[in-house]
């Protein structure tokens, strides 16, 4: 007789977050009702409100998770980087990894920007997305300092340019459903760094 090891069952909170991640990305925040999240998670509706005060809190947690997912992709790529230039390219590669993830209904662009587009201008979630994008730009600037002989202004200006190129590439990649635009943006950034 085989002994079967059963995996620990996920908590209701984790199942709700997993369901929200998939549904918010697939259908959008506005297009995803609480009932759909609860049904996909396979939990009672009361479980949602035992874990989250509101849908807004669930959305904020979703945005934090998306941010952490990207940071994890970046950290994995950064471990392979040995130079400042490779550090910059690690940012692009993390976005490429994000674009090439096996999403349930295909890649639809940056989940954070998609969410921000649905939220009111003064929503805390939009500020969370802005902080993420500013952090990415700051990471780029830190790496670029090594390529600009410590010229902070040049590093900041180049980081801003690269972040704009990256965001444009992600938008197009979302429309095209693959990471090719991000690969092209990475090549552009590499060529610009070679010319520094």
Automatic annotation (TrEMBL):
The HTH tetR-type domain, residue ranges: 10-70
Keyword DNA-binding: yes
Keywords: DNA-binding, Transcription, Transcription regulation
Residue ranges for the DNA-binding region feature of this UniProt entry: 33-52
InterPro entries membership: Homeodomain-like_sf, HTH_TetR, Tet_transcr_reg_TetR-rel_C_sf
GO molecular function, one term: DNA binding
Pfam families the UniProt entry points to: TetR_N (PF00440)
Protein name: TetR/AcrR family transcriptional regulator
């Amino acid at each position: 007789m085989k002994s079967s090891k059963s995996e620990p069952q996920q908590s209701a909170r984790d199942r709700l977050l997993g369901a929200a991640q998939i549904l918010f990305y697939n259908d959008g925040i506005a297009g995803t009702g609480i009932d759909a999240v609860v049904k996909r998670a396979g939990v009672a509706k009361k479980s949602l409100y035992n874990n989250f005060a509101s849908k807004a809190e669930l959305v904020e947690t979703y945005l934090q998770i998306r941010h952490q997912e990207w940071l994890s992709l970046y950290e994995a790529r950064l471990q392979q980087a040995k130079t400042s230039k490779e550090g910059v390219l690690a940012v692009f590669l993390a976005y490429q990894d994000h674009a090439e993830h096996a999403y349930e209904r295909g890649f639809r662009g940056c989940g954070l920007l998609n969410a921000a587009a649905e939220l009111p201008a003064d929503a805390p979630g939009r500020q969370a997305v802005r902080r993420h994008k500013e952090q990415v730009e700051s990471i780029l600037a830190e790496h670029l300092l090594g390529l600009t002989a410590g010229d902070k202004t040049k590093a900041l200006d180049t980081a801003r340019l690269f972040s704009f190129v990256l965001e444009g590439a992600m938008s197009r990649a979302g429309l095209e459903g693959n990471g090719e635009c991000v690969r092209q943006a990475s090549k552009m950034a590499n060529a610009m760094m070679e010319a520094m």
